Every structure is written in C-alpha cells, then in structure tokens.
Amino acid sequence: MEAAAKERELSGEKAQRIVDAMRESVAQRGAAGSTFEHVAGEAGVSRGLLHYYFGTKERLLVEVVRRDTELRVARLTEPLGRAETVDDVLDVLVASLTGLIEHEPDFFLLLYELFSAGRSNPDIRKEVGQLFERTRSHVAEILKAKEREGVLDLRYDAEAIVSYLFAVGDGFALQALSDPGRDIGGALAAGAASARYLLASE
User: Fold this and answer.
1) Which one of 42, 85, 107, 130 is CB 3.0 to 4.6 Å from 21, fit for a cystine?
2) Could you report the per-residue pLDDT of 119-174, keeping only the tens digit for each?
3) DSSP for residue 118
C-alpha cells in the first residue's frame, strides 16, 4: 500500500522522463536487461529515486503500461464520440490498432513483458488486471453511448464485446509484429467483419 501511494505521488516532467526512459530501455534491451541503473541514467535521475517511488522494476513497468493505455483510450474516445455510423466506429478501431502496430509496437512488447512478470508476481498480476478492467469499462461506456444514439445495435453486453475486440487486437498485433513482412490486409478485413457482426444486429 505504501509503495503504491509513493508511486502515485510522482508526477510532472521528472516522472515522464522516467517512464519514457523505461519504455525506451525495454525496446532496446527487453525487460530483463532494463535495470534501474540504465533507466536512471537515461532519465537523468538517481537510481535511489526510482527505488523510492516504484520499489521494483515490475511496478515501474506497470506505470509505463498504465500511462500508455490511458493514451490509447484517449485516442479512441474522441473519434468514437464523433462516429455517426458503424463504419465510422470500425474505421476508428482499425486505425487505432494499425497505428499502434506501425508506430508504437513497444506498447505490445510491454504488455507481454508484464504478463510474464505477473505469472510469478500476484501483485503485478492484480494491478494489470485492474488496469485492463478500467480500460474495458471505459470503452464499453462509449459503445453504450453510441447505442443510445442509434449508431450501434450491440448483439452482446458492451464490456464482453470490448473484451473480445481487445483480445483479438492484441493477438493480431503479436502475429503482425512476429512476421512483419506478412500481408495483414485479409486478416484485418476478417477482423472488421467479425466486429461489425458484434456491433450491429442488421
């Protein structure tokens, strides 16, 4: 509890430097090679500061993913709010996924690293689970709002649909990043068709 409170207190430009340095370090060295010494040096802060606020490398990874996830959701919120048709919604979802794969692949790398860390650390697993739950709930509320507007006609519970779409998107990203030379157009079309079925009953 105390460590979590300290983590929440860290804010501002210094915190962002630490988060950015950790993200960059994982991209270059992987999670195992990303020591507090590396991150502190690249962020221009003392190693003791990282220990004080985060305690462990895994908790810093959680903070990096939390901030990246908030950005991911924020980028969905505004364009989804403007969507006037099912096609508009699908375009936003596909563009978000392909944009992350093409320009921010480290987001998925961090997710997989945290998943691995969580298998041996129940606290990390719980924190990541809560992060995903908040994300699903937020996007589900957007879909329900679109349904009230008459844009969507959801076939299943909104949160269940979001859970499925995120699972498909994360798995798709893993395949695309593992085989970057592969043409993903057909797979994207199939994914969009399945999403359309879930989002509109007609």
Assistant:
1) 42
2) 888 877 887 888 888 889 999 999 999 999 999 999 999 999 999 999 999 889 98
3) H
Which sign does the torsion angle of CA 140, 141, 144, 150 carry?
negative
- Asked if 9 and 34 sit in the same domain, the reply is yes
Using only C-alpha atoms, the chain has a radius of gyration, in whole angstroms, of: 18
Angle at 130 between CA 129 and CA 136, to 5 degrees: 90
Instruction: Let me know: does 14 contact 45? Beta carbons within 8 Å.
Output: yes
Name the amino acid, one letter, at 7: E
Do residue 28 and residue 110 come from a single domain?
Answer: no
Distance CA(144)–CA(5), nearest Å, equals 33
User: In which domain, by residue range, is 91 found?
Assistant: 61-199
Provide the residue type at 192 as one letter: A
pLDDT (0 to 100) of residue 9:
52
The string of pLDDT tens digits covering residues 53-110 is 888 888 888 888 888 788 888 888 999 999 999 999 999 999 999 998 888 888 888 7
Q: Length of the chain, please? A: 202
**pTM for the complete prediction?**
0.79
Residues 137 and 193 in one domain: yes
